[in-house]
TrEMBL record, chain A:
The keyword Nucleotide-binding applies. PANTHER family: PHOSPHONATES UTILIZATION ATP-BINDING PROTEIN PHNK-RELATED. GO terms for molecular function: lyase activity. The keyword ATP-binding applies. This is Phosphonate C-P lyase system protein PhnK. Gene3D superfamilies: P-loop containing nucleotide triphosphate hydrolases. PROSITE patterns: ABC_TRANSPORTER_1 (PS00211), ABC_TRANSPORTER_2 (PS50893). Keywords: ATP-binding, Lyase, Nucleotide-binding. It comes from Thioclava marina. Residues 10-250 form the ABC transporter domain. SUPFAM superfamilies: P-loop containing nucleoside triphosphate hydrolases (SSF52540).
From TrEMBL, chain B:
Pfam families: PhnJ. It catalyses: alpha-D-ribose 1-methylphosphonate 5-phosphate + AH2 + S-adenosyl-L-methionine = alpha-D-ribose 1,2-cyclic phosphate 5-phosphate + methane + 5'-deoxyadenosine + L-methionine + A + H(+). Coiled coil: none annotated. Keywords: 4Fe-4S, Iron, Iron-sulfur, Lyase, Metal-binding, S-adenosyl-L-methionine. It is an enzyme of class 4 (lyase). This is Alpha-D-ribose 1-methylphosphonate 5-phosphate C-P lyase. The keyword S-adenosyl-L-methionine applies.
Length: 256, 289
């Protein structure tokens, strides 16, 4: 029999985070496989972002284990975790201003991760930046503009380019389409879907937007009050919701 | 002429001991910024309070002190600090680089090569090279601790992207012994090559920021750059108009309001000794034979 435990990219076991008496997230366990997109949906305050922060190492959970390629990321020392954070992992924030250096040009933003892992050839860095701007559909002529001069959608695409330039294996996304208007969202989703497929990325995607989850996610976890209440393939969860809360969530989506 | 109301060299002995401990730690870990309890000095921040405290902690009554400001011995800052130590320490002062045992400097390294046994004390306004890219002190300390210096190159990248070359011309960041990235204080990058392998002890004092760091003699110091945009020590492309020197760092002096200008050595002692040795530049007064 194949030992599946050996091939999972990320294994999460019994992850719990409390804020005093309140629960952030409780007893969350799942495995993430290479090339898989896992959506985490739920309303505001359901513990989605807490869970994501714990997984990415921004918060320290109270209980549980997070194994990345078999290595316990919580027991890891900080330098190792930070190296992981700029090589194998990437984090796309909801607000691009949190993930970009606003005072540094677009090219510098994309090049930062390259320079952080030791790139010291200006021409090569510049070339990689130009290439990545093209991949996220930003005009190469804007490479020396500051993110401040970009629209919200462009900033978000720039943030994605900046994160993917070092070819990470695992990307954490916190509401990547939040705050964007619908047509811009659609383009961004299209782009993300292409990149995920081309690069074989594993993604943990937090969103409250079921349409986004439907388009991007292979599997879905529904959270309420810090607990995972339903877990399954995206189509299965959205088309045949079992838990009452999921049924409510699915039926609350406006049909146009 | 010592003012006996003060301890030798103004600071009390306990303070000097505290500063010396910071200096020793700095020398033991080249390029590392050692925090110290900077004292209130009888001069404003920005006038060299850090340098003065380091100098005071290093001075002995047998020392000969030289103070320069942008290379000059005769500007307000240099004259005031020299007088300060004449009054509070009674030490000998000089303007000649070779005669000095302790040299406090603001923004220059003397042209004349330093020798073993000399101490060069820099006045530092902002000791943190990463400050303008990362405003959080907690984060910059972590970056130093974990040797995460990619951000420094982002600054140089931005220079090239905007100006076509690394346009940082002073306070040019250096890597010390392959470990710490250090701000060499706002010396022109022309002086950067003199930081490494220097036989003198180099001490850096930042009074307001309360940091001391050091380069022991013969330390390896490398200016950061890109493979395809290597570091270049630059100076004005002229000879000194007074002494004719082609290799010294020059100040540009506007001489009238019709575009007239001259270039003179910023190191006044160097320029004067060359002139007294008979060297002449473009605008030297005619010989009174």
């Amino acid at each position: 029999m194949r030992d599946f435990k050996d091939t999972a990219l990320l294994q999460v076991e019994g992850l719990t985070k409390r804020y005093g008496a309140r629960i952030g997230c409780a007893d969350v366990s799942f495995d993430l496989w290479p090339g898989e997109v896992l959506g985490i949906v739920g309303e505001s305050g359901s513990g989605k972002s807490t869970l994501l922060s714990c997984l990415a190492g921004h918060l320290t959970p109270d209980h549980g284990r997070v194994l990345y390629q078999g290595r316990d990321t919580l027991a890891m020392n900080e330098p190792e975790r930070r190296v992981l954070g700029r090589t194998d992992w990437a984090f796309v924030h909801q607000n691009p201003r949190d993930g970009l250096r606003m005072g540094v040009s677009a090219g510098g933003n994309v090049g930062e991760r390259l320079m952080a892992v030791g790139a010291r050839n200006y021409g090569a860095i510049r070339e990689a930046a130009t290439d990545w701007l093209a991949r996220v559909e930003i005009d190469a002529g804007r490479i020396d503009d500051r993110p401040r001069q970009f629209s919200g959608g462009m900033q978000q695409r720039l943030q994605i380019a900046r994160n993917l330039v070092t070819g990470p294996k695992l990307v954490f996304m916190d509401e990547p389409t939040g705050g964007l208007d619908v047509s811009v969202q659609a383009r961004l989703l299209d782009l993300l879907r292409g990149l995920v497929r081309d690069m074989g990325l594993s993604v943990i995607l937090v969103t409250h937007d079921l349409a986004v989850a439907r388009l991007l996610a292979d599997r879905l976890m529904v959270m309420q009050g810090g607990h995972v209440i339903e877990h399954g393939l995206t189509d299965q969860v959205l088309d045949d919701p079992q838990a009452p809360y999921t049924q409510l969530l699915v039926s609350s989506v406006l049909q146009v | 002429m010592t003012d006996h109301a003060y301890n030798f060299a103004y600071l009390d002995e306990a303070t000097k001991r505290m500063i010396r401990r910071a200096i020793l730690k700095g020398i033991a870990v080249p390029g590392y910024q050692v925090p110290f309890a900077s004292r209130e000095m009888p001069m404003p921040y920005g006038w060299g309070t850090g340098g003065v405290q380091v100098t005071a902690a290093c001075l002995t009554p047998e020392d000969t002190l030289k103070v320069i400001d942008q290379g000059a011995d005769d500007t307000t800052n240099a004259v005031s600090i020299r007088k300060f130590f004449e009054r509070t320490g009674g030490v000998e002062t000089t303007t000649h680089t070779s005669e000095a045992s302790v040299i406090q400097t603001r923004h220059r390294i003397p042209e004349e090569p330093l020798r073993e046994g000399q101490i060069l004390v820099y006045q530092v306004p902002i000791p943190e090279p990463l400050r303008f890219l990362e405003p959080r002190e907690s984060e910059t300390r972590k970056m130093h601790a974990l040797e995460e210096y990619g951000l420094m190159h982002v600054k140089l990248y931005e220079d090239i992207a905007r100006h076509g070359e690394i346009s940082t011309s002073y306070a040019y960041p250096v890597n010390v012994e392959g470990r710490y990235v250090m701000d060499p204080s706002p010396i022109p990058k022309f002086d950067n090559p003199k930081l490494g392998g220097n036989p003198a002890i180099q001490l850096f004092g930042a009074g307001r920021e309360q940091r001391i760091y050091a380069l022991p003699p013969f330390t390896e110091v490398v200016s950061l750059d890109f493979e395809d945009h290597p570091f270049q020590a630059s100076k004005a492309d002229h000879d000194c108009d007074l002494c004719g020197c082609a290799t010294s760092y020059l100040d540009e002096v506007i001489t009238d309001d019709r575009g007239g200008r001259m270039f003179v050595c910023s190191d006044t002692d160097f320029c004067e000794s060359r002139r007294s040795a008979g060297h002449r530049g473009r605008l030297s007064p005619e010989e009174m034979a």
